[in-house]
């Protein structure tokens, strides 16, 4: 899912990690709510709080009954270092914007988990020197927001780096030990066989370190999937991988397995409709799986036109829908009943036009965070780029910020 060595010394990192329990209590005392039932954290869809036209979580909660949100993504600073940031650019230590969103959610009886990693960007497991310093960086996030749940999204390019994955898994184990009751999920790429070679190596690393999270989730999209049947087949195969890796029986493996989908049109042009989500939800609940989530709430609304011209967007689904249709499947997984809605999708009102940024130039050099306009859309650079046309590649350096 989508987006160098100034780390803490090992001694300082261990000290911070060891203080994890006290830090979490302090975080709670400063305003965190009582933890929700873990089923809500297991059902929390991803939401980017600072990018991709963030939706109003209050509106989502009122319309869908959703209580938990998976905020994404915490990364290492783009300029290097071992301190947590939002998206590589906004330091967690000085954040007020995400904190305000969390306060709004909690004021309505909800809560959040925070996801670290994602597709692209520099991860803390890559830039920190060891597991202890990586854990210390993540502990800052837990303490700042008084978290009861955290998600390790381990995928490209980080999961191809064995040392980085060892740091991430080691950090997850430290946080789990030092923050009693912390809900920990681990998310990785999905394939038709369940997960690929790097995903299997990550599982073996977890086994070698004696680490068991609440669940290991796969993302069965962007890999040639075609609807719900291909996704449930991958989940069945992943269950077998969990059994063989950890020596679990089938039921135990399902109790530690999760699904993380993509609503609407995926990055590679696959389509997953409301009917597909219902089919996977039925599979997940009937097999007593631990997690059902999706990427993302920023996309859980209808494009204009509904198919978005056959393109994938970070701000709408590219399929016909009512706003927050997909969130209601998470609500059902959590065991709640979403409010009733008219089954026929209604057009989303045309948004107020956004002004266009400066026009993209093929000769200019752009770095992460730079914004341009091209083909009547605004785009934000994910990393350094030159002469790479915005929108030319699903996996390119440009993030579509919507029409302008």
Quick structural overview:
By secondary structure, the protein is α/β, with parallel strands linked by helices. The chain is built from 13 helices and 17 strands.
Explain what the structure shows:
- The protein has 404 residues and is an alpha/beta fold.
- The protein has helices at 10-18, 20-29, 38-43, 57-64, 97-107, 124-127, 131-145, 162-178, 197-209, 228-246, 250-255, 274-286, 327-333, and strands spanning 46-47, 68-75, 85-86, 90-91, 111-117, 149-153, 183-189, 215-219, 257-262, 264-265, 271-272, 291-295, 365-366, 371-374, 377-381, 385-386, 398-403.
- The strands form 4 sheets. Strands 1, 2, 3, 4, 5, 6, 7, 8, 9 and 12 form a 10-stranded mixed β-sheet that branches. It has a 3-stranded antiparallel β-sheet with strand order 14-15-17, with no helix packed on it.
- Helix 4 links the parallel strand 1 (46-47) and strand 2 (68-75).
- The longest helix is centred in the middle third of the chain and has 19 residues, at 228-246.
- 54% of the residues are buried.
Q: Give the N-terminus to C-terminus distance in angstroms.
A: 25 Å
Shape label? globular
List segments where confidence is low: pLDDT < 50 over at least 5 consecutive residues: 2-30, 346-351
Count of runs of 4 or more consecutive helical residues: 13
List the helices and strands in order. HHHEHEEEHEHHEHEHEHHEEEHEHEEEEE
Average predicted local confidence, pLDDT? 89
Helix/strand/pairing category: alpha/beta
